[in-house]
Amino acid sequence: MAVVTFEDKEFENVCKELESPQLDGGWEFFTESHDVQIHRLYREESGLYEYKVLGTLSDVSPSVCADVYMDLEYRKHWDSYVNELYEREVEGKKVIYWHVNFPMFMSNRDYVYMRELREFDVDCGHVWAVLAQSTTLGDVPEKDGVIRVDDYKCSLVFASDGKQGTKAFMYYYDNPKGMIPTFIINWAAKTGVPGFLTSMQKACRKYPEFCSKRKTASS
Question: CA dihedral in degrees (88, 202, 175, 177; nearest 10)?
């Protein structure tokens, strides 16, 4: 059985962000579109931004959102940026390898990280929280032509929006290294996050069908 990867306090803090995002200390409004609002915080040491995202997936449940996000096999079917993705257990912890397709003329990136999903009952109701962070566990060798991202952190929380959908919070930061122009990073943040949530919403709608076919194939 996998051991605990993250501390209880880390989960408590990210769950609070869903109802009341902590935007003091330099966080600034960045953009808003398609029911998604993004704030960002500049990091002096890297010259990059951390992002906090609030969004709504109007017609899918939070439990399905959590299942879809955690299902690596299914992600290979709906996320076109996935080149390679798998999970294995190392020293009792689940370690994920994720190779991401980058746009033409740019080197692909890959990530080695740990993640954990927990469920909680909080003031706003039942929530599903996921924490993820880079790790050096597993000794996964780097690949020629692919840049290893070793500074990555992501948190997500899903809860009911009080209707038929899901309210979601996401924190995201990574340092992709390399000489990526600022306008491309800004474009990716403005379009990539809303685009990801839209793709995930579509994937949630199709998830029961995928699970049914997978069950049939394995029986």
Answer: 90
Q: Do the beta carbons of residue 74 and residue 212 sit within 8 Å? A: no
Q: 184 and 152 in contact (C-beta within 8 Å)?
A: no
Tell me the per-residue pLDDT of 148-162, one tens digit each, with 9 for 90 and over. 999 999 999 999 999
Distance CA 136, CA 113 (A): 8
Give residue-wise pLDDT tens across range 86-141: 999 888 888 999 999 988 788 999 999 999 999 999 888 999 999 999 999 888 99
% of the chain at pLDDT higher than 70: 98
Which three-class secondary structure state does DSSP give residue 114?
strand
- The answer to whether the beta carbons of residues 124 and 32 sit under 8 Å apart is no
Number of H helices, E strands in the chain: 5, 10
Q: Which tokens go with 104? A: 């033409």
Structure tokens at 39: 């704030």
Residue 112 backbone phi and psi in degrees, to 5: -125, 120
Cα–chain-centroid distance for residue 49?
A: 16
